[in-house]
Prior knowledge:
about 375 residues; alpha/beta; 2 domains; five-stranded mixed beta sheet; 15 strands; elongated; iron; iron ion binding; IspG_TIM; metal-binding; iron-sulfur
Amino acid sequence: MITREHTKIVQIGQQKIGGGRPILVQSMVQTKTADIKATVKEIISLEKSGCEMVRVAVPDLDSAKAIKEIKKQIHIPLVADIHFQYLLALESIKNGVDKIRINPGNIGGREKTKMIVKACQEKNIPMRIGINTGSLEKDLWEKYGKLGVARVVLESATRQIQLLEKEKFYQTVVSLKGSNISQTIEAYKLFAQRYDYPLHIGITEAGPGLPGILKSAVGIGSILSLGLGDTVRVSISEKPEKQVETTWQILKALNLRQKGIEIVACPTCGRTEIDLIGLAKKVEQLLACLKAPLKVAVMGCVVNGPGEASFADIGLCGGKKQAVIFKKKKVVKVVEQESKILPVFLEEVKKVLEEKNYPEDVLQLNQILRSYHE
């Protein structure tokens, strides 16, 4: 079991992070923020996907002003991503943003940083300092570069934190992102030894498709396994909904959060006598709409059946054109026709949902089952 580090508690809108609270799933919209209709539509879609905090780019005044109307139509904390222009931060705060993401080092000097800090303090709005390995200060490279990239990242974060602490501002979240996994992991480890500010974690510019997903999973999973991290974003070159889905899968794999069905299935071998791969994919597809945190096993034979999947809330293991359905290692039904395995199994899943009191999921499954009975 992973032991979480207890960081400072920071309030972001209606959510709190830190102090061992559940890690929140974050994403960033790909729309132009000034296009209120398109931005709200994408955020609502992200909410349905399981996103718990969302960031928008604020490159101009129209985007900052749009925040007020966007906030009225969404249900999760909104973060404004700002670079260089302190006036955009002030306008975003004025329009009710829940958190500001800046780099105090590139916002125009201490006086402008003080103005942002004062505005945040008046509205009780936190700030995320975003350190990126690709944009570290030259003087810090000269002083600490021989000690490695991670040390330079740490000193960059320290410099920015000190700017805020001089103004007695402590509602700070920190990210230390890079595209190199080992350097990023080391940077987070070093930071956690020096500070207890909550951490937003990710592997930046991970890339598209399967390589990007694997890179994110290895990097983020490694950091999370150290007990670090309070919010997470997967930065793959895909739709934001895919980023959210991938984040949830990482958290579920580490047993840090549970949302929806977790499918456990064996890879098959020469002992398998049913279409296990096809069956597992159908089960995953049909149960994807459920919100209950069930563990569902689809196993190919008795070797990997009830014994190895005893942790599952419900599962099945295949035989010769038949299957055994089990719950918590106990066999509850034998299905002797391969064509009936899936509908019978879904009926048993429904019973588990009823026992665990998930009425909305039961309704969803009833709709699916009707297609088999018509």
